[in-house]
Each structure stands twice: as C-alpha cells, then as structure tokens.
Q: What sequence folds into this?
C-alpha cells in the first residue's frame, strides 16, 4: 500500500530577482513499512523533498498525499496535527528540548496528543528508551549525552507516537562512522520492530547498504 | 498546562541572567505601582478627610441663584449669594438622620484697607458662630500667637499664611492685640526688616459684594492661627465671628432684620453711626493719606463691636451651610435626597458635594493624582519596552528549539503558552515580591510621621502628614495592572515565537 504519493512536485525559492528551482517535477511513491534512502549530493533537493513530505515546507506545484490525505491544501493547525500524529522527525542536530531530560523528551509528543494517561505515556516512553538502549540515561539532560546518544533519544521520540512515517534528514551527518552505523542499525531494527516507514536522506554512499530502497535525486529531479 | 509550566520554569532557571533582569524590572514596577497607588489613595483619602473634617464637611448648601457650584474660591472674587432662610433649612436638616452635624457660615471676599499709603489687598473670610464652629471642626485650627475667639466675641483670626501675604502685599505685619512681635514666626521676607515692621493689631475690612453695597469694619486680631492640615490652602481663609462678618458685608446683623440691604441704605445707617466718611463715597476713603501709621488717627468707618451674648445669631444672613454626614460614602445619595427635600419645600437652595464646592482644590488633587498616575504609567511603559525586547531576543535565540517543537507537533498556542507561562511565573514571583514590599512600605510610612509644610507636598500627602494608604480595591487594581503588564509584554514576543517555523530552525542550523 502506498503511504506517500507524490506527483509533479515543484518547489521554487525566490532569491532576490532570481528563483532557485529546488524540485523540478518529482513523482514518487513510497510503500508502507519501507526503509528507504534518498541519496544525492548537497543542493540536489533531498532535504526539500523530506521537508515537504514532513509538512514543514509547502509545495509550489504538484500533489503530495500522505496516507491519501492531500497535504498541500491543509491549514497550519491541520499540518501541525498531522506531524504530531502521523510523522516522526529525526534532525541532524537540534532534536531535543534542552530543559527536559531523556524520558521527558521522549514523552513530549505524547503529552501534546493528550489522549493517554500519564502512566501509559511513561510506560510507552520507557519501552522505547529501553529499545534504543538508553535506560540508564533516562533522567539525563541532552547536554549530558553524546551526539550518538542524542540521536538515539531522537529515534525513540520519533517513534513514541506510533507514526506512519519517520523522516530523518542526514541523521548520521554529525556522527563518527561507528556511531553513525549504530544509529542506522538501530533505525533498521526499529523499522522491523515497529513496522514504521523510515525515509532518510544521506549523501554518504557507505550508509546505502542499510537501505531497502534507494531513490537518487539530482538537480531537483529523481534519477531513474 | 503542567508541561507548559514545567518547561517555562526550567527555561527561567536555564536563562538566569535574562530572567533576573526581567524579574528585577517587574519587581521595581510592582513596587513603584503599589507605592504610587498608595500615595494616590492616601492623598485622595487625606484631602477628602481634611476637607470634610477640617474645613467644610461633606456637603455645602448654597443659594439656587448661585451660578456655579464652586463657591470656595470663586474666580475674580465674586461674592456668594445669600441664604436668608437658615432657620427653615435647619428645620429640614435636623430631620435627616444621615446628617451628623451642620453649621451655617458666611463666606466672601473682603478688602483689607491700607491705613498707611499702601494699596489695599483682598482675602477670603469665613464668618461663623465660633462656638458652633469649634464643635463641628474640632481641633482643625490652633493659635501660634494670641488665642482663638471666645464665644460671641468679635474679632478676627488671621492664618499665618495670610499674614505673610499681607506683609508682601501691604507691608504690614499683623500681631494679636496685647501681644508682641514673635521673631521666630517672621517670614523669610519680613525677617531682615524686623525692626522696621509696621505692626498692626487690627485692620479695617471692607466687604466685597457684587452689588457694591458694602460696608467696612475694624476688627481686632485675636490670634494668628494655623490649620492642622492643608494650611497653605485654608490659610486663605481668616475666620471672624458671624456678626462682624455680617457688618463687614453690609448684611443686617442678628439684631437687625435678616435681609441684605442696599449700599445707599447702608450708608444712611452708617451715617447714623457717626460715620461721615460713608457719606462721601468709598474712593475718598481708600486714597486718603494721613501720613501716619497710627491706627486710631484715621477716621475710617468703624463699627467697633463688643461681645454681645444672648443674640439669636441664626436669624441673620448666611452664604452657605456646611453639612457633615454620618457616612461620607453615601455622599451623592445624600445630596440627591437633600435636593429633593429643598425642591419640594421651594426653598431656593441646593446641596452640592464638597468636591464641587471646593473647586480648584479638588481639581488640584485630581491634577496631582493624574500626574502621579501618568508617572507610574510611563515607568511601566519603559518597563514593558525593556521586557518585550528581552523576551523577543529570547524567542529569537530559541529558534531551533521552538522550530523543533513545532516540527514534532506543538501548536502555536503551546509556544505562546510557554512564553506566557515564563512571564506569569516571573510576574508572580518578582512582581509579587514588589507588591508585598510595597504594601509593607505603605503601612510603615504612616508610623514614621513624616510631615511637611511645603504646599505641593501637602497636596501630595493629602495633608501635612504623609499617610499613603491601600484599600482592598487599590491592591486589586495593582494586581490587575501587573496582570495587564504581563499580558502586554508577552504579546509581541509570542507573535515572534509563533512565527518561527521548523524551516527557520533548519535554516538556523
């Protein structure tokens, strides 16, 4: 089943008197439960594509459907709720709330959803923290964690709401190769455990071995 | 809400420097606001209390013919219409159980005539049955030289303020009869000339009436007085006995018919009293120059009055009646009730509140109150700008954090709530401390008995003693002001924070 269906996606950024064409007509479908990588050099449009799929940027033209919901026509509140309930994010660096400890960071999206009891929320967060191997750091603040540990927390936080999709924009870019490999292995493991669709972007050819499906992008177009 | 407050509180602790700056501003703002409101309320209460208890009661009853309600200090010294039917008024007032006391008074402007070659000068004067006056305004005046009037005794009590004024304008220094110059009481202007002062123990006063039908009278100074509070303002009002006042104004005294008589009739009557000056007109009297400072040597019209007991003083003419209520908070209602009674009886009089009757003094109080309020508001405006700026900077510095929160599903209202929460906590703690300290200071200040004789400060103090005061409603007002400041300061930073998108966070990284 297609979880994402993109047709004729165009994204232009006006830059002074010129226009930057970030995406020039992308057609893409992604199946539910896939572990997919978007690969391309810097400036190829992979981050823009992820941002539009994740409803944090808007298309200039074209159609983007997430679970058959056309996201290009949604209001700010609707896309916020869609992000909360359907999508998990793992960014390169700024993933965590500095004033909350690990378990509170993981609980954060569930507390925003307001549809579970405190006990249920704590239980779910504990489970994911355990799965990412950070139980002993549960009460540590982000500043007390290494880069790899923070990314693990971000993975747990991204998965805590049982989203349909987890989007990761170069999740290993700021990590050493060993830690990066551990993170990708963890993402792969979580993909298998939680059956969540993972889409991550990278420009590192070495990480491609983890991907189930690879989409190459160059100059704003998908390379077939 | 719990999550918002948790994040807000931890952010406050995380950004200690900024939080402290905002906190100190809120602390000082709340402190100044509490003190300012305390001073304003104290002034309001003091002025009200000093006017009501020290000078004119809650209500003034005046003639219906009187064009304006402001009768205390009328523009251009216009005279006040008379109320000849006092006994009828008294009969009505006695039946009203909400009235505590009342006193009829004569109040007008008089001219102090120069017996040297100087110009005359003007002053207001209060004519009262001093025995009754003392009962109603107990302890509101005291003599710094001489003594107060005895019962039914003719004479005048000159306020120290007015004595200084007369020295400045007429170059005379008044002292009570049978007394000597008290050097300690000399004004700064008079002190260098203490050996050359033209000392006067009495003076000739001429009533100033709109119809020019006036009379003049020599009055002995019995005492130099001070009012307990607002001495500079009430110092414009020397006090004389009602009979002398009536004679001075050309009204019939108690022993005569209670009517106002014309100038010509008065002159004829004056002539009978062996006063030929009156027959030749007032002008010749004023410009006469004998070249002597001997009071007795000039042939002014002089109705030298002696103490007369047993007179029915109430049968004479008055200008108004001062009324004190049992409950001053029922002022407007009481005025309305009285006016209904007066209208029903067709008495040609009306009751007005002390605020209206005191005219410019009440206006001065409102002006100072307004100025203080504006001052406090300016302080808060500055505080608001500083806090808004600091919070806005904080919002921009947290772009990545806010953007990430928005990316994972936090609505704008959550971000706004977070900033509001931070400001509310800071307001609650620091503003609360400032508020409590303000209340403590407001309650301590009256115990220090800070007094002043400065005119402006007396108005600010609402009397001669600084007694700031905070009622329950004043405190509620401060809390509302603080809440408003909190909300106003957070509006723009919240708008800025709400405009931060996940894309901004990505761009920042």
A:
């Amino acid at each position: 089943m297609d979880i994402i269906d993109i047709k004729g996606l165009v994204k232009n950024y006006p830059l002074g008197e010129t226009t930057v064409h970030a995406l020039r007509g992308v057609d893409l479908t992604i199946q539910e439960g896939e572990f997919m990588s978007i690969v391309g050099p810097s400036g190829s449009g992979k981050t823009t594509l992820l941002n539009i799929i994740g409803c944090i940027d808007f298309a200039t033209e074209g159609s983007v459907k997430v679970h058959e919901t056309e996201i290009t026509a949604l209001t700010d509140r609707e896309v916020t709720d869609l992000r909360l309930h359907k999508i998990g994010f793992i960014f390169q660096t700024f993933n965590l709330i500095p004033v909350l400890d690990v378990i509170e960071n993981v609980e954060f999206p569930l507390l925003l959803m307001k549809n579970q009891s405190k006990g249920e929320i704590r239980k779910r967060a504990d489970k994911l923290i355990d799965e990412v191997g950070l139980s002993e750091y549960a009460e540590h603040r982000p500043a007390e964690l290494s880069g790899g540990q923070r990314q693990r927390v971000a993975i747990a936080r991204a998965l805590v709401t049982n989203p349909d999709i987890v989007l990761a924009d170069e999740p290993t870019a700021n990590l050493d190769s060993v830690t990066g490999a551990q993170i990708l292995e963890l993402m792969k493991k979580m993909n298998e455990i939680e059956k969540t669709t993972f889409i991550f972007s990278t420009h590192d050819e070495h990480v491609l071995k983890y991907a189930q499906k690879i989409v190459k992008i160059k100059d704003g177009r998908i390379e077939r | 809400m719990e999550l918002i407050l948790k994040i807000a509180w931890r952010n406050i602790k995380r950004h200690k420097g900024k939080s402290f700056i905002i906190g100190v501003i809120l602390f000082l703002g709340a402190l100044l606001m509490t003190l300012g409101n305390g001073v304003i309320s104290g002034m309001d209460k003091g002025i009200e209390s000093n006017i009501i208890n020290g000078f004119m009661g809650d209500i003034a009853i005046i003639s219906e013919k009187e064009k304006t309600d402001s009768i205390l200090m009328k523009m251009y010294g216009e005279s006040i219409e008379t109320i000849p039917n006092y006994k009828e008024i008294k009969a009505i007032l006695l039946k009203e159980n909400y009235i505590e006391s009342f006193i009829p008074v004569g109040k007008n402007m008089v001219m102090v005539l120069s017996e040297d070659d100087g110009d005359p000068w003007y002053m207001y004067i209060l004519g009262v049955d001093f025995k009754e006056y003392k009962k109603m305004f107990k302890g509101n005046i005291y003599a710094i030289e001489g003594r107060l009037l005895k019962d039914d005794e003719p004479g005048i009590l000159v306020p120290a303020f007015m004595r200084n004024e007369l020295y400045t304008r007429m170059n005379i220094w008044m002292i009570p009869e049978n007394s000597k110059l008290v050097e300690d009481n000399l004004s700064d202007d008079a002190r260098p000339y203490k050996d050359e002062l033209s000392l006067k123990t009495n003076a000739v006063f001429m009533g100033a009436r709109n119809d020019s039908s006036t009379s003049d009278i020599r009055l002995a100074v019995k005492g130099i007085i001070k009012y307990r509070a607002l001495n500079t303002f009430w110092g414009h009002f020397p006090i004389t006995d009602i009979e002398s006042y009536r004679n001075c104004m050309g009204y019939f005294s108690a022993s005569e018919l209670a009517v106002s008589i014309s100038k010509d009739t008065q002159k004829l009557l004056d002539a009978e009293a062996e006063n030929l000056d009156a027959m030749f007109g007032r002008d010749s009297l004023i410009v006469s120059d004998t070249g002597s400072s001997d009071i007795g040597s000039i042939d002014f019209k002089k109705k030298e009055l002696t103490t007369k007991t047993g007179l029915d003083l109430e049968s004479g003419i008055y200008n108004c009646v001062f009324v004190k209520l049992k409950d001053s908070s029922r002022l407007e209602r009481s005025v309305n009730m009285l006016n209904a009674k007066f209208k029903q009886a067709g008495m040609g009089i009306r009751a007005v509140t002390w605020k209206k009757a005191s005219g410019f003094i009440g206006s001065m109080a409102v002006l100072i109150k307004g100025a203080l309020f504006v001052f406090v508001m300016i302080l808060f405006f500055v505080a608001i700008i500083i806090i808004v700026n600091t919070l806005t900077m904080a919002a921009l510095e947290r772009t990545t954090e806010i953007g990430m929160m928005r990316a994972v599903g936090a609505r704008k209202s959550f971000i706004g709530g977070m900033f509001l929460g931070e400001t509310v906590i800071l307001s609650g703690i620091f503003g609360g401390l400032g508020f409590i300290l303000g209340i403590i200071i407001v309650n301590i200040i009256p115990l220090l008995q800070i007094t002043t004789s400065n005119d402006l400060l007396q108005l600010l103090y609402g009397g001669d003693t600084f007694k700031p005061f905070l009622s329950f409603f004043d405190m509620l007002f401060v809390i509302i002001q603080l809440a408003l400041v909190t909300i106003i300061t957070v509006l723009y930073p919240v708008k800025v924070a709400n405009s931060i998108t996940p894309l901004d966070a990505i761009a920042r990284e």
